[in-house]
Amino acid sequence: MKRSVLTRYRVMAYITAVMLLVLCACMVFKYGFDTGKDLTLVVSQIHGVLYIIYLVFAFDLGSKAKWKFGKLLWVLISGTIPTAAFFVERKVVREVEPLVADAEPQPVRA
User: Fold this and answer.
1) CA 89 to mean position of chain CA atoms
2) Which long-range contacts (CB under 8 A, 24 or more apart) does 22-25 make?
3) Percentage with pLDDT > 90 across the chain
4) How many CA atoms lie within 13 A of 8 on its CB side?
5) How does pLDDT run across 40-81, given as a tens digit for each residue?
6) Are 64 and 8 in contact (CB under 8 A)?
7) By three-state DSSP, how is residue 17 classified?
8) Are 48 and 22 in contact (CB under 8 A)?
């Protein structure tokens, strides 16, 4: 597996998690303080698009790492639970890193 597959997943996991936290804060202001209605709409749409990209990259990583369906489903759903993507990303990196390291060619020494 190429390192770029893992890197794409990691970047999108962090971006999706941060945008979900921003969306949660916007929802608190929208429903708790009756302000920021337009901002909440924009942030929710941005998060939705980024989450779709996250799904594609996570599915790509899962198929190349040959995950079982349950594990893949948990990784895909973690982008919808505030702060879960941070923890799941750490666990995924620890599990997938050896697959990436084994796939990289070793330099030839003369």
Assistant:
1) 7
2) 22/47, 23/47, 24/82
3) 53
4) 17
5) 999 999 999 999 999 999 999 999 888 899 989 999 998 888
6) no
7) helix
8) no
Q: Three-state SS across 18-86?
A: HHHHHHHHHHHHHHHCCCCHHHHHHHHHHHHHHHHHHHHHHHHHHHHHCCCHHHHHHHHHHHHCCCHHH
Alpha carbons 105 and 24: distance in angstroms, whole number:
43
Residue type, 77: I
Say which amino acid occupies 50.
L
- As a residue count, the chain comes to 110
| Encoded tokens for 85 | 């993507």
Tokens representing 59 are: 């599915």
The answer to whether the beta carbons of residues 52 and 4 sit under 8 Å apart is: no
